[in-house]
Fold this sequence. Notes:
- By secondary structure, the chain is of the alpha/beta class.
- About 45% of the residues lie in helices and about 15% in strands.
- α5 links the parallel β4 and β5.
Amino acid sequence: MIAVTGATGLVGRVLLFDLLKDNQKVRAFFRGSSNLEAVKDAFFEYHEGTEALWSQIEWVEVDFSDLDSLKTGALGVKHIYHCAGEVSFDPKREESLYQTNSKGTENLLYALEGSSVESLLHVSTIAVLDGLNSEGEVDESCDFNPKLAHSPYAISKHIAELEVMRAGAEGLRVVMVNPGIILGSGCWNQSSGALYSKYKNLSLVPNGLSAYVDVRDVSRACQLLMAAEPKKSRYVLVSENKSNLWVANKIRGAFGRSKAKVLPTAFLKVGYGLNVLLGWLIPPLRWLSKPNISALSSKDKVSSAQLIEEFNFEFIPIEKSLEYHLTHFKNKSKS
């Protein structure tokens, strides 16, 4: 039995299908507030005629704040893909990010002690990687630097990684993946799923680079690493590094919109100054934090050379990924 946490999310729903397609017996963890019908609709956005596969999913409602609930969900499970998590750069979400990403992971791992679970794959993020390697790129050798300013999201995922590493030191077979911005279909109003609508309507975008990966590649890489005996415990998942302007114009072009222009970095710096002075009074200014501005204006490239070289892994080009998911987004916008 294989369990997938965060099964209703962007990664989880694709991973579910791929595992079922591989004739695996799958248990899907979900929260009581989840809309399974919406998940089912998104499930079919990737694949047609999969009603039979959908019916094979064993859905289990789990409360990540309740160890007994987690222990019950893990009964008879051999492998777990831990995809559950919250992605947000909203400063108001700091406590929620800690409870979901940090405490939720801690509770899950405590619940697995003495269980039938042999291995766990944890989906993290490149946001926890600081510094550059000898090639001037971000990769698995770049460690979290607590002396630098980080978003609450990055901090919450770093704490989660520490919990995973603790469990690994205590005997659980663990591996972590650190994806860039994940391009997928569904979850259109949250996480990276909101990227399409935001860039569609933005005529000015920050002059930085971002690292992207298709959700289908994330699913493939997760399955590959779970089934294999990887040489490392962490793998970066990035297809390509693209400028924010390039991505924005690909999205805007799909809707016949005029090309976007670069937002001068000076504007962001002014925004940060206003945040320092007036953020306490005007909450929206708090979005212009040092970590957020740094992420938007960074020119650092992220590398997946380790995965590519060890497994000869081929990523979907980002242009093709955008074309695929934008088709779904445009069809959803019409309905």
